[in-house]
Amino acid sequence: MIEQSVFGSIKNGTEVKSYTLTNKSGMKVKLLDLGATIAEIWTPDRYGKFGDVVLGYATPAEYENNSGYIGAVVGRVANRIGGAEFMLSGRKYLLDANDGKNTLHGGFDSYSTRVWDATTEEMRNRVTFKLFSPDGDQGYPGNLWIKVTYTLTDEGELKIRYRARTDQMTILNLTNHAYFNLSGKLGAADVLDHKVWINSDQMTPVADSASIPTGEYRDVAGTPMDFTAPKLLGQDIDADYDQLNYGGGYDHNWMLKRGDAQIIMYHPETGRRMTVVTDQPGVQMYSGNFLRGLVETTVDGKAVTVPGHDLMGQEIQYRSGVCFETQVPPDAVHHDNFPNCILMPEMEYESETVYRFDVAEEGFWE
Ligand code: BGC
């Protein structure tokens, strides 16, 4: 079932619509055409009580001014490009330096603050959002036609299928920036009491707090970055380790192994479990280390950032959500040894990430 309603409007007057998908067991996913955003995901805990397991805002204005990309699709190139420029086919392309000297999540005019065109398919419980990104948009070459399809299945899966075509060689790395918190307490509780497993032996370390990869692959064994055996997110997050010091916590890319599942997150108190399956080579696990001053606004003519509020009106707290941004590693365009993110006109970009929600059996990971 798909229910449509008006969520409000953004500054330029464009109306923002919401689309709520419901499955047979009553699980609900609310999507917005603003940013092709996941605004709410309602799943039951082990007592059958439903709770919202992703951070979301109450108003379009907060989404529009949000520096945390809450729930949105980010691109053209998710995460960072060092020096806000790159060479492709002998030409240099200049991007926005919207994160110090570097580009983050596309640049200033982010896909997350644009209103996408929506089409619904009631029978398939799916919504497709389309965005046209013209040649030169954010500084990237080539016209780009993007489609992101969200499907909610009766098996508790939210499937995200990304498709794109270009008419010129370009670079592309699309992902979703939802912040999960399986406690159902939204912005009021941190996620340090969640257990995480990542099917990965290696991560791509960053050089310093600007978070640009060095280009190496580093073994996680014996380090706080090791999630090959499930552990609490909070267990090692504040360890004195170069990568955690640079990121203020987890904000790194892990290289994923193939298999039936790449990531599992479990919340012992509620029994909620989320399993991530993706065809992408990596994942940015970002533990919400910058979730304090989120919303940009002006007070007495001065630009300031203020805390964002979740749907319950609660201030969104530090580390109250964790993102699993499935992707090609950050700054791949500058590292020949990383999987590349080049899209050619004769290719169709196609990728799928599935977030499956259920309640774990008694004794799971105890
Ligand atoms: C980045 C973080 C950034 C966050 C929100 C994540 O993908 O890795 O460093 O703060 O997005 O902007």
Descriptive tags:
366 residues; nine-stranded antiparallel β-sheet; mainly beta; Beta-galactosidase, Chain A, domain 5; binds beta-D-glucopyranose; 29 strands; globular; five-stranded antiparallel β-sheet
What does this structure look like?
By secondary structure, the chain is mainly β. It has two helices and 29 strands. The chain has one domain (2-187, 281-355): Distorted Sandwich (Beta-galactosidase, Chain A, domain 5). It starts with a strand and ends in a 7-residue tail after the last strand. The site of beta-D-glucopyranose has 9 residues, from strand 24.
- Name of the level-1 CATH class: Mainly Beta
Q: What would you say the CATH architecture is?
A: Distorted Sandwich
Task: Briefly note the structural class of the backbone.
Answer: mainly beta
Q: What compounds are bound to the protein?
A: beta-D-glucopyranose
Profile the largest sheet.
9 strands, antiparallel
